[in-house]
Design brief:
- The chain is built from seven helices and 13 strands.
- With 295 residues, it is of the alpha+beta class.
- A hairpin with a 6-residue loop joins strand 3 (98-102) and strand 4.
Length: 295
């Protein structure tokens, strides 16, 4: 039988999005799942640095770069996109399930938040206690904080992926500039703009770590993999509806590092080597998370 709160709070929230967590679940580190590999750009990628970094003669919309001038993908950008896609696929991107992070006019930020102990989105990405205003309905009050299980690290560019042949045709050493035009529908006047992008063919090195703080946490990793697969048929960064940001993940390696790896130097366990997302999904599902109970 479905809990009463599940029936009355939001019909879009379905049993697929429920975990086995309860308010009495005890949290204690069991281990960490670590996913490393590559993210390949199939089209140009634009993760913006903001207008504050404009240079004379530069693009209107530059990409974010590190202290050495090399483009990278911030972990917050990748993590936020995964969260957004999972919220949408779970039916949680609806007014009754969204709260305001910011209500500044023209810069409103709305994300999913709930006080349900088995809410997989809040378990993966964390939850802060306090009062938050819902987009629709009564304000959300929660007294419990939920530690985020998922960490996504900044993804540096693999400089070797920008070949000598590519560099000959780029506008900068590592990036290209895409020109676009917005057309006024009345006067037909063009409003040109430029967009700096990391070119198609570039590769970034990714690293995601999920803490397993109780046995109920382990299946959450399947949602992480789901989010990454959704991203392969969506877009990352700006200009996605205009052709930018198509990415794919490859050469992935998943390992399990149990508590004894950190406490006494025990060996890590390789779950899936140099694999695709689909292969890792299969390996994790077939394991039934037995690796979390082997120590």
């Amino acid at each position: 039988m479905r809990p009463l709160w599940l029936i009355t709070s939001n019909a879009a929230y379905n049993e697929y999005d429920m975990s086995a967590h309860t308010s009495q679940t005890e949290l204690k580190l069991i281990g960490k799942l670590i996913l490393e590999g590559e993210m390949h750009c199939h089209t140009g990628l634009h993760v913006g640095a903001g207008k504050g970094s404009l240079e004379i003669g530069g693009s209107d919309n530059p990409v974010v770069k590190d202290a050495f001038g090399r483009p990278y993908v911030p972990g917050s950008s990748l993590r936020g996109k995964i969260r957004s896609l999972l919220e949408q696929s779970s039916g949680l991107a609806v007014p009754g399930e969204l709260v305001y992070l910011s209500r500044r006019k023209g810069q409103e930020v709305r994300i999913h938040q709930s006080d349900r102990p088995d809410d997989e989105i809040c378990l993966l990405f964390g939850r802060n206690p306090g009062r938050m205003e819902r987009v629709q309905g009564e304000s959300l009050d929660t007294s419990q904080a939920t530690p985020a299980r998922l960490s996504v690290f900044d993804a540096p560019l693999d400089p070797d992926s920008i070949t000598a042949q590519m560099r000959e045709n780029l506008d900068d050493e590592l990036t290209e500039v895409k020109s676009e035009n917005a057309i006024d529908r009345i006067t037909s006047q063009a409003n040109p703009r430029t967009l700096e992008r990391v070119p198609a063919g570039a590769k970034f090195k990714i690293r995601l770590v999920m803490d397993v703080l109780c046995e109920e946490d382990a299946p959450l990793f399947l949602r992480v993999l789901e989010g990454l697969r959704l991203l392969e048929d969506d877009s990352l960064g700006g200009g996605g509806s205009r052709g930018s940001g198509r990415v794919a993940f490859a050469n992935l390696r998943l390992v399990w590092r149990g508590k004894n790896y950190y406490a006494s130097g025990a060996a890590e366990k390789e779950i899936s080597p140099a694999a695709t997302l689909a292969a890792i999904q299969t390996a994790v599902s077939q394991s039934q998370f037995a690796f979390t109970r082997e120590e």
